[in-house]
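Example 3.
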Amino acid sequence: MSRFSEPPSETFRRLNDSLAFDRRLAHFDVQQSRAHVAMLASQGIIAEEDRDQLEKALTQVEDELRSGTFPFADGDEDIHMAVERRVTELAGRAGGRLHTARSRNDQVATDMAMFVRQAALDAEAACLELAETMIDQADRHLDWPMPGYTHLQRAQPVYLSHHLLAYTWMLLRDAGRFRAVLAGTAALPLGAGALAGVNFDTDRSQVAAALGFAGVAENSIDAVSNRDFVLDYLAAATTCATHLSRLGAEIVLWSSEEFGFCEVSDAWASGSSIMPQKKNPDAAELLRAKAPRVSSHLTGFAGVLHGLPLTYNKDMQEDKEHLFDAVDTLELTLAAARGMMQTIRFDRERLSAAAEDEFLAATDVADLLVKRGLPFREAHGVVAGLVRKALSEGKTLSQLTVAELHEASDLLDEGFYELLQERGWLESKVSAGGTSLAMVRRQIEQARKRVEEARSGR
Amino acid sequence: MSRFSEPPSETFRRLNDSLAFDRRLAHFDVQQSRAHVAMLASQGIIAEEDRDQLEKALTQVEDELRSGTFPFADGDEDIHMAVERRVTELAGRAGGRLHTARSRNDQVATDMAMFVRQAALDAEAACLELAETMIDQADRHLDWPMPGYTHLQRAQPVYLSHHLLAYTWMLLRDAGRFRAVLAGTAALPLGAGALAGVNFDTDRSQVAAALGFAGVAENSIDAVSNRDFVLDYLAAATTCATHLSRLGAEIVLWSSEEFGFCEVSDAWASGSSIMPQKKNPDAAELLRAKAPRVSSHLTGFAGVLHGLPLTYNKDMQEDKEHLFDAVDTLELTLAAARGMMQTIRFDRERLSAAAEDEFLAATDVADLLVKRGLPFREAHGVVAGLVRKALSEGKTLSQLTVAELHEASDLLDEGFYELLQERGWLESKVSAGGTSLAMVRRQIEQARKRVEEARSGR
Amino acid sequence: MSRFSEPPSETFRRLNDSLAFDRRLAHFDVQQSRAHVAMLASQGIIAEEDRDQLEKALTQVEDELRSGTFPFADGDEDIHMAVERRVTELAGRAGGRLHTARSRNDQVATDMAMFVRQAALDAEAACLELAETMIDQADRHLDWPMPGYTHLQRAQPVYLSHHLLAYTWMLLRDAGRFRAVLAGTAALPLGAGALAGVNFDTDRSQVAAALGFAGVAENSIDAVSNRDFVLDYLAAATTCATHLSRLGAEIVLWSSEEFGFCEVSDAWASGSSIMPQKKNPDAAELLRAKAPRVSSHLTGFAGVLHGLPLTYNKDMQEDKEHLFDAVDTLELTLAAARGMMQTIRFDRERLSAAAEDEFLAATDVADLLVKRGLPFREAHGVVAGLVRKALSEGKTLSQLTVAELHEASDLLDEGFYELLQERGWLESKVSAGGTSLAMVRRQIEQARKRVEEARSGR
Amino acid sequence: MSRFSEPPSETFRRLNDSLAFDRRLAHFDVQQSRAHVAMLASQGIIAEEDRDQLEKALTQVEDELRSGTFPFADGDEDIHMAVERRVTELAGRAGGRLHTARSRNDQVATDMAMFVRQAALDAEAACLELAETMIDQADRHLDWPMPGYTHLQRAQPVYLSHHLLAYTWMLLRDAGRFRAVLAGTAALPLGAGALAGVNFDTDRSQVAAALGFAGVAENSIDAVSNRDFVLDYLAAATTCATHLSRLGAEIVLWSSEEFGFCEVSDAWASGSSIMPQKKNPDAAELLRAKAPRVSSHLTGFAGVLHGLPLTYNKDMQEDKEHLFDAVDTLELTLAAARGMMQTIRFDRERLSAAAEDEFLAATDVADLLVKRGLPFREAHGVVAGLVRKALSEGKTLSQLTVAELHEASDLLDEGFYELLQERGWLESKVSAGGTSLAMVRRQIEQARKRVEEARSGR
C-alpha cells in the first residue's frame, strides 16, 4: 500500500503502533464511517450499491466489536486500519472506497473529538451525582456543629452540612467546566482531508449533523492540527481532581484517631498486612493521590504540542494515552468519592466537642465590642490580649474574671460570659452564604436547583 | 495586634511577606474597600461620618498609589495591611472600622477574582488583535502557494493565506476560552468573612453589583477556599501559549536558509556577538520558549492546591506569583507575536518553488483514478508504485512514460500529464474549509465576522 | 555592531532583554573574563599591555558591581554586554579585544555552570545544617514516645527522636544529591566559541584550572547546547523541596488542636486579621507549599529544551528565571525550616498520651503468638479478631477477659496483660534501624558522623 | 484476616488493587522472600524445616511465574498477596510464617528499590549502546562538512561527525546519571517492618548482602517513607528523554525536503493513508514526543509525595504506574533511536552544498582582522558591514571588490578572497573540542574510551 520496499522494524512497530490503546475509539470510528459513507453516496461520489455494501459491512464490524469477536489481524497498526481492513474483507472492492475523500488525519481528529465529547458528558453527570450525594449528606447532618479551620487551626464553628456543601459548589463548577468542554468539540474536522481539504464536492454539514457536531471546522489546516479540546478536557479534569484530592485529604485527616470526626465504611477501607488493629482510609488516600496524575497528563500533552509545526505530526498520537488515563482515573475517583461519601459515618460527639472550644468565639467577642462602638481593629486587639492572658494562665476565656475583662476594655461586662455560654456563634453568622441554619437551608435548596438545571443542560 | 509576644524572625518575614508581589493588587483592593465601606454604611453597620472619612482616605490612598507616592512602611507584610495602615493614618480611629465584617481571607479572594477578570479580558482583547493581524496578513498573501506539511514532509500545496488563517481560528478559540474564564469569577467572595460568614447583617449583593460581580458566592467556606478561577486562567493561558509556540516554531523554521520562506524584520531579530552575518529570529524563539513556562505555572499551582484541607491555608499565597508571571508572559508574547507578524516579509519565490514539487500532486492523481472508477485504496496503491518508480530512477512524475503509466494502471493516460502541468492542485480543494481561493475568501469573511462578534461580547 | 539597519522594537526589547535577571551572574562573568584574558595573553593571542589594561578595567568593574555603583546603560541587553561595554569605556581599544576567541554562547554556558556549582554547594551546606538541627532536636527528645502512623492512622509507637531523625537521612541524601550536581558542571564550556571551536590556539585547560573546572568540554557543539547541569540542580531541588514539604505538612498537622503535639514559636507564626485567638503555622505551610513551585521549574525548563535542535537557541535563555527562582526558594525554605525547627516546642504529655493507645500493641501481641509457635499470618488473624471484638464492645484490649482470650487462641494467657501493661512496645523494636533507644542512640552517632563526612567532602 | 466485617466495594477494588501493574515486581518479590526466609532460619526465628518448605514453594512460584502458569486468584489485591497466598497453598502452615518480621511497607519498598536498580542498569547499558552507535556513525562520516546552526541559522561549518558526537557526550552523561541512581538504592528497606522496626532479632545485613544492597536503611521510618530513588530514576530519565527528543527533532528537520540532509530507512518510517508519495519519519517524531511524557511522570510523582506525612500512605502506590511507564518509554525510545541511527542515510552532497555558504566564513574573516591587529569587537563591526553590503546588493562575499573591502578596512586585501576560497573554515577550529579533523579524531578516541570505562563501571 505504501511506496516502501522494506518492512517496519519490530522495535519501530512497538513504538509506533497504537492499536493497544486506540481500540477504544472503535465505536466512534465506525459511527463516523457510517456518516461518511452516507454522505459520499448522497453526493454521488460513490455508488449506492457501494454504500449498501459498506453499510452492511460496517454493521457487522460494529456487532463484532460489541460482542468481542472482531478479528484483529497481525498487521493492524491502529484501530482505523483494523476497521478498514475488516470492512474490505467483508465488502470486497467496495471496501476500498471507504477512505475516499478523507484522510487518517481528519478521521482521527474526529474520533478524538467524539470521544472527548462523550467523556465530558460522562464526567459532568458524575460530578452532578457526587454533588447530589454531598447535598444528601448535608441534609442528613444539617445542624451538626464542628470547628471550621483556617491554616488547619480551629477558627470558627460551622455546621458539618455547611462544610460538605462547599464541595457541592466545587462540583457544580466542575460540571459547568465539563459542559464548557463541549464548545471546543463543536466543529467537525472530517472533510479536511490530510490538511488541505479534498478534491471532491463533499457535504460536510450533512456529516456534522449526523454525528452531532454543531458545524464544520472552517480551516482544514487547523482542523487536523487542533487538539485544543483534549487540553480543555484535561484542564477541567485537573481542577476536578484537585477538588477530589482536597476532599480525600480531609477524610484522611478526619479519620485519624486525633480528629476522630468520621469513619469510612469497611467497604472503602483496607487493613494492614502486619498490624491487626489498623483500618486505613485507602479510598480517601487515593482520591488525594490522583490529582497530580491527572494534572501531569495536562502538562505532558501540552508539552507534546509545544513548538510543533502545523499540521499533523506523529507526536500528536500521544494525545490518546494521556487522555484515556485521565478519563479513566477521573471516572473511577468520582465514583469512589460517591460510594465512600454515601457510606461514611460521622461522629456527632467528637465533632461537637471540638466545636465547643471557647477560643472559637473570639471573633464573636470582638464583634460584640464593635457593636458597642469600638472600631474593629481595636476590638481585635482587646480580644487578642484576653486570649494571650488566658493561654498564658492556662485558663479558658470564661474563666477570666470581670476585673480582668474590665482591665482589657470597659465595654466588656457580663455579656461576655453570656455570649460564651449561649454558644450562638454559629447562628450569629447571618450573612448570605454564612453558616447559620437558615442560610444553610437556603443553600441546600439553591444547590438542588442548580443540580437540576445542570442536568437539563441549562 | 496579635496574641504574640515575640516578633517574627527575619527569615520568616522574607518567606512570608507578599508585598513585593501583591502590591499589584492595590487598585482592586482599594476599589473593593470603597464598595465595602459604602455597604457597611448603608446597612447601618458603621456611621455615615465614618464612611465619609474612610472614603476620603481611600481616595487619597488611590491617588498616592497612582502617582507612586504611597508611603510603604517597614512592617507592611502585604498590600492589604499597607492600605489599611495608611487609611488608619489618614482617617484616624475610623480607619479601625474598615475591616469590620470582612476578613483577609474573603478580601484577598475578591482581589484575586477581580484581577483574574481583568487579566482575562485583556488576554481576550490581545488574542482578537492578533487574530486580526493574521487575517490582514492572509488578505495580503491570499494566493501565494506554498507546500502544506504533515510530519514536516511536504504533503499538499496550500495558500499561505490558508496557513496563516489556521492561527486565526486558534486565537478565536483562545479568546473564547478567556471569555469563559469570566464565568468562574462571577460570584463575589467578599462577605464570607474568615470562613463562616459574618456576625453582621451585610448586603453582599450591593457590593457585588458595585464591583461588577454577577452574584455572591453561596457558601462562605467555598468562597475563601476557591481559587478555581486562577486555574481557569492558567489553563486558557497554557493553550494560548501553546498556539503561540507553534507559531514561533514555524517562523524559526521558515527563517532558516533551508526553508527561506520568510524574514523577520530587523526590529524583531538579534545579531550575534561573534558571527557578523547572523540574523537570529529571537522573538520567534521566545514565543516558542514561553509555553512550558506558562504551563508549568498551571501544574505548579494545581500542585499547591492538591490535598489541601479547606478553607484558607497560607499555601494559597502561592497563587499570586504563578498567576502574575503567567499574565505578564502572555501579555508580552501576544504583543510580540503581533508586532513580529505585522512586519514579517514572506518570500513569494521560495514559497512557490517549494510548492511546485510534483510529488505534492500524488493525492490528486489518486483522486483522478477514483473519479475514473478505481476504489480509493487501490488508486493509492497505484500512485505509490509510480512514486516509488520515479524516486528509484531519479525522475519526476512527469518524466514517467505513458508505457510506464499503463503498466501501473490502464486508467492512466495523457490526463496524467495535464493534471501535473495545470498545477490546479490547490484549486481542486473545493470542499468547505479547503484551500481553494473561493473557500479562503469565504473563510476570511467568516473570520472577520467572528472577531467582531467576539469584540462585542457575543 | 550588527548588520541591522533598524533598531529593535520596544516590545521586543522587553521580551528579549535579560539584564533584569541575569545581572546576578555578574560576579561569575567578571571572574571568567579575568581567566580568559590571562590565557589569551599567555598564549600570545593578545599583548601583555592589553592584558594589563583589561585586568585593571575588570578589577574596577568588580569593585563597582560590589559597591553597587556599576553604571548600567540604557542599551545593555544583558550582563555580558554591560560588562564588556564598561570594560571598553575603561580600557579603551583594548576593551575590544576581550571577546577574542570566545562567544556569547560559551560565555553564558560557563557563567551558568559556575552559578550552578555555587548554588549546589550552598544547598548542600544548608541541607547539612538542617540535618544537624534535626539531630540536635532528636538528642533533646530522645525518649519521648509518640505514635508512629501509616495512612495517618496510629500504627506503632516510636520515639520522637526516631521520627525527627527520619528527616536527617532524607537531608543527608539531599546533600549527596547536590554534591553529585557538581559532576555535571566539571567540564568547562569556555573555548567552544559559538559552536565549532575557535580559530586561535587557546589553552582551555589553563582557564579550566583558574576557574575550578576539572577539565574542558570535549565537544564544542555539546558545550554550548548543554544545560544538563541546570536540570540536575532542579531535580535535586525538587526532591529536597518535597522532603521539606513533608516536614511542613507534619508540623501543620501536629500544630492542630486535635494533634497538639507541638507549637511553633511566635517568631515563625502569624496571627489572623479577624480571629484574635489564631496562631497560624505559616512557615510550615509555606514549606509545604513550595515543593510544586520548585518541581514545576524542572518540568518547565525540561519543556523548553524538549525538541530543541542543537546548538544554542534563544529559548535557552529561559534557564535563568527557572533556576534563579528555584535557588532562592530552596535557600529560603531550608533556612526557614532550620529556624522553625530550632525553636519549636513539643508537648511531651500530648505525645505520650497518644502513644499509650493500647491498640498500638496489636503487632506485639501477634508477635507474642509467633514466638509461641503460631505462624504469623494466623497470629495476625487471632489478634484482628480480638481487636474487632474489643471495638464492637467499646473495650480496650486489656478489658478483654481471659476467657475471651482463650476463645481466640489457647496460646494466649496472662502474658497478654503483662505485655499491654509493660508498654515495652518501643523497646521491643530491637532490629537494626528500629525505634528502641539503643538503636536510636547508635543512629544519632551514625548520623553525626555522616554529616561530618559530608562536610569534609567525603 | 482483617478486623473488617464488610467486603470491599467493587469500585474500591478497582481503585485500590494494584495487581494489574505491580505483577511485574513478581520476580523481585520472590527473590526477596528467599533471602528473608534464609535469614529468619539462620537467626532461629523460624525452624529449618519451615525454611525448607518455604524455599521449595518459592522455587515453584518462581517457575510458575516464569512459565506463565502462576494461578492468580480472584482476591489477589497485589502481587505480594498473590505470592504469599500461593506459597501458603503450596507450603501449608509454613506459608503463614513467611511474613514474620516484615511488613508490606518494607517489602514493597524493597521490591521497588530492586526494580529501580535493574531499570537504571538497563538504561545505562542502552545509553552506552546508543553512544557507541553515534561514535560509529561519526567514524563513518568523519569529514563530511555541514553547516552548524545557532538559532537554527547557519552559523559556522562543522563536520557531521562532530555534530553526531555531541549526542555521544550527552548519552555518556546520561549513563553516568543512571549509574548515580544506584546510590539511592543502596540501603535495604527490608527489616524496617511497618515503620518502627521489628520485634525479632533479625540480621538485616545478611539479607542486604544476599540481595545486592550495600547496607541497610538506618532509620525504619525513613525506610518505608522513602521513594527518593524513584524520583532519581525519573529525573535521569527526563534528561535522557530530553536529549533523545532533541535528536528526534533534528532528524525530523533534516528529513524535510528543504534540509534534505538525511533519510531514515523504510524500516523506521511510515507512509500516508491518503498521500502516496509520503515517507514520514515517525520514529524520529516519537522520539521527540516522548520527553514530555517522561518528565510529566516526574512532576506527577513528586506531586504525589508533596505534603505527605510520614510514613507509608496509600498515595505512594502511585509510584508504580508513573515509574513503569517511564521505564518502558525510555527503553523503547533508546532502542528505537539506536535502530534508526544505525540505518539512517545521510546525503553528502546536500550537507556539503549547505556548508559552502560563504557567509559561514564571516567569523573567520573577523578573526583574520584580529590577527592583523584589530580588536575583535571592531573586526566584528567591519565584517558585519561587509555582510550588510553584500546582502543588500544581492552578492556573495567574494563578489565584493577590493575597493569595497578597503573602504571597510585597510587591513583587508587579497587574503580575504583566499580565505573564502580555501574553505579552510573547518580546519581553522583548532582549539580543544573544536571541529577540526584532528580534534574530532581525538574526540572519537576519547569517547570510545569513556564508553569502555563506563561499561566496566569505572
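Chain A is about 60% helix and 5% strand. Chain A touches chain C through 50 residues (CB under 8 Å).
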